[in-house]
Structures are given as C-alpha cells and as structure tokens.
Amino acid sequence: MPEEKTNNFSKPQLVFNASQKCVELRGKEMRSGYFNESVSREGTRTKIWVDDTRKVFCSSVSALNSLLVSEVSEDESYVKSKEKTKSKDWSNPIDKIKKRMSECFEDYAYKEYKPGMCKGNRIFVYSGKSHMPEIDAIVKIRKLFNDDSEELMEVEGHWNDKVNFYWNELIILYDLLFEELMRIIHRRGYFKGQTMWKK
C-alpha cells in the first residue's frame, strides 16, 4: 500500500513566522540602499549592493497582509462596525491605510513626460504615467527657453530627496498596517498556547 501523506499545513504557524520576520526587520535601522565598494590587493574594484531596509520591511508586512487577506475580509470587528454605521462609504482601517499609501505615492512619484505642441513650439506634457525612481536614478526634467520652447534634460539623482521622503513616510504607514494586522491576529487567537513559541 502507498504510504499515507500527512498534511502539516498550519496557517497560524505561517502567520507567526511572517509576523516574527516583520518584527526582526523593523528592529533594524531604517536606511536607504547603497553600494559597498571595496578594492582587492590586485586593484580589482568590487561593488556589492546593500538592501534598502525600508523596502525589505515594507515588503514583509505586505506579504503578511496577503497571508491574512481572508482574515481581514471576515474580521468580526470590521463586519460589526460596517453593519453599525450602515454607510456605503465605510472602509476598514486597513483600506484607509492603503489609501494613504496611494496618496503618498502620488505626492512624491516622478511624472513622466511626452512631447506635445503649443503655439508652434514643442513642449512636454504629463503622459499619465508615473513611477518611484531608485536613488541616483536618471530622470528627465523640463528646461524652459525664452522662446517658450522646452527640452528634457537628464539629471542623475534629481529625485533623491522625494524618494527618501516617500519611503520614510511609507515606513510610518506600514507600521500602522502591521499594528492593525496584529490586532486581527490577536482576535483570531492564532498565537494562543505555548507551542507557538517553540523553534
């Protein structure tokens, strides 16, 4: 007879591991990524990228949020609050935090340009696309001339301040998201019992 397989899947254990990872990452200094350069005795230069700890933490909280998507939608506290308010505009705390994240992106994102014309002069208008550049990335900036014409100049690192402002504000929002997820986890009773704390 074929050997029977045992299903060892444990949602609480997965959630615990993901939560513990978030706590470990948040305990580190939140800083931007950078290249660590070194030169060997032979004169060979080596560049090693050191991860942006802010992005790593935010990604970990996002992964935990994905793991808890069912728990969030079924959370008894949220359901009761929605029924009590009876408002079509009601949204749970997590949705409100994510809305603030989107607003934060719009505040600091680089807006891409496309060519256009105005009174016979070439100009550049917003293309409708935007993104968050990496630190020291080259971005194109509009340069205006006296004849009302425009050109795009490539400038390295021009968006650095906005990129850092964005990630620093995002850390605060991901802290709030993690706190709210932990409340949901607590209400589900996932971490009850000493066995959850064993390695």
In short:
This protein is of the alpha+beta class and 199 residues long.
List the main descriptive attributes of the protein structure presented here.
199 residues, alpha+beta, two-stranded antiparallel sheet, disordered C terminus, 23% strand, 6 helices
Could you explain how this protein is built, in words?
Helices cover 46% and strands 23% of the residues. It has 199 residues and is of the alpha+beta class. It has one domain (11-197). Helix 1 runs antiparallel to helix 2, helix 2 (53-67) packs parallel to helix 6 and helix 5 (93-108) packs antiparallel against helix 6 (160-188). The radius of gyration is 24 Å and the shape is flat.
Give the domain tally.
Answer: 1
Q: In total, how many beta strands?
A: 6
Main beta sheet, described? 2 strands, antiparallel
Q: How does the overall form come out from the CA principal axes?
A: flat
Q: Say what oligomer this is.
A: single chain
Order of helices and strands: HEEHHHHEEEEH
Which residues sit in consecutive blocks of at least 5 with pLDDT less than 50?
194-199
Number of alpha- plus pi-helical segments? 6
Tell me, rounded to a whole number, the average pLDDT: 86
What does the secondary structure layout of this molecule look like, with pairings?
Layout: H1 11-26, E1 34-39, E2 45-50, H2 53-67, H3 69-74, H4 76-85, H5 93-108, E3 110-118, E4 121-131, E5 138-144, E6 150-156, H6 160-188
Antiparallel strand pairs: 1-2, 3-4, 5-6
